[in-house]
Specification:
Layout lengths: L9 H9 L11 E7 L13 E4 L6 H10 L4 E6 L5 H10 L4 E7 L8 H9 L2 E4 L4 H8 L3 H11 L4 E4 L1 H4 L4 E3 L9 H6 L8 E3 L10 E4 L8 H11 L7 E5 L3 E5 L4 E6 L5 E6 L13 E9 L4 E3 L4 E3 L3 E8 L2 E3 L14
Parallel strand pairs: 2-6, 3-4, 3-5, 5-6, 9-10
Antiparallel strand pairs: 1-4, 2-11, 7-8, 10-13, 11-12, 12-15, 13-14, 14-17, 15-16, 17-18
Helix pairs in contact: 4-6
Length: 340
């Protein structure tokens, strides 16, 4: 009978290393897990791709698409909480990959650890898990890990992010650096305030330089806060737009920028394109008109290069008056709570 692949925590290896001469100092700041054959040769070429996931349960079809773009080779999962369970799920339930290695960061020092950097450099596909994106900013920004993530995509390899992992992929990212997760009413009430903690200069992903991403989108009524993020970001970047992704949904972007939505619950991706730049001030509710909102469904065609949406599910022009979101289009069949 074939044995089930085992997750092997780094702690096991460290215990052995510490028992040998010359190994008095153990690596710090991360835990390591692996499943599968990390030494096997990747069977097929990789392809540049982005998998933008809104959080919640995974669409396995989207992950199989991702595994194919990774050459059905070796996946590396990065996170700052939890353990190796996601890696086991990718290996067992998604399948079609040779191995999955998981690195769980607990300190910024790990972002310069040679072992961590070697694992990342060899990855065929990288998956940024959910959690607290503030930790990703603190642990990875301006480190070798951030540079390797950019280099990974530049080499023609896929990267994916879900929830917090998606939040940091945009050229302007909501970092949640104040210890919380701002909601739509609070963000619209003060888009210039201390709760709108936007981060720039973190990662450089294809076609996302002028994009703010957001997640758990319709379930948590986040259209208002994404509009507030764009109001703040447009003070320095007149071209910035927003992409929100619903839970259990993934926007799968090919190397040429064309994208299709995959979803297990009928969710959508939301393209938010303001037509102008608002005036914002500290402590002042947002006033902003002409914010175009377009829904991208499984049958839609979306080009991230041109921002054109074919066969949109819904579309409309929202406005914000005194911090209150008005005239916002709603996803079909979904009742959205008031954003007062």
């Amino acid at each position: 009978m074939a044995m089930k692949p085992l997750l092997r925590p780094l702690a096991v290896f460290l215990a052995l290393l510490l028992a040998l001469p010359g190994h008095a100092q153990a690596p710090v700041g991360y835990a390591y897990y692996e499943v599968g054959d990390v030494a096997a040769k990747t069977p097929k070429p990789t392809a540049q791709a982005l998998m933008l996931m809104g959080g919640g349960e995974w669409d396995l079809g989207a992950f199989r698409w991702f595994a194919e773009r990774a050459g059905n080779g070796h996946i590396v999962v990065l996170r700052a909480s939890g353990a190796g369970d996601a890696g086991e799920e990718i290996f067992r339930d998604v399948g079609g990959v040779l191995s999955v290695q998981t690195i769980v960061f607990s300190d910024r020092a790990a972002a310069s650890d040679p072992r961590v950097l070697d694992v990342l450099a060899r990855a065929d596909g990288i998956f940024l898990a959910g959690g607290d994106q503030a930790n990703y900013v603190r642990y990875w920004k301006d480190t070798p890990v951030a540079r390797l993530l950019d280099a990974h995509v530049a080499k023609g390899r896929p990267i994916a992010g879900t929830s917090a992992g998606l939040a940091i992929l945009g050229g302007t990212a909501y970092g949640a650096m104040d210890g919380g997760s701002i909601d739509s009413p609070s963000a619209l009430a003060d888009p210039a305030g201390p709760g709108v903690t936007l981060v720039t200069g973190f990662l450089s992903m294809p076609r996302l330089a002028h994009v703010v991403t957001d997640t758990h989108f319709n379930a948590r009524d986040r259209l208002g806060r994404l509009i507030a993020f764009l109001a703040a970001a447009r003070q320095t970047d007149a071209a910035v737009i927003g992409i929100g992704v619903d839970e259990q949904s993934a926007l799968c972007v090919e190397a040429d920028g064309t994208a299709r939505l995959r979803t297990r619950n009928g969710g959508f991706a939301w393209l938010v394109r303001p037509r102008n730049k608002p005036v914002i001030a500290l402590g002042t509710p947002l006033d902003w008109s002409d914010v175009e909102v377009t829904g991208i469904g499984p049958d839609s065609r979306f080009d991230l290069e041109s921002l054109r949406v074919g066969d949109p599910v819904f579309s409309g022009v929202a406005r914000v008056v005194g911090g209150r979101l008005l005239d916002a289009p709603k996803a079909p069949g979904v009742v959205t709570a008031s954003l007062r």
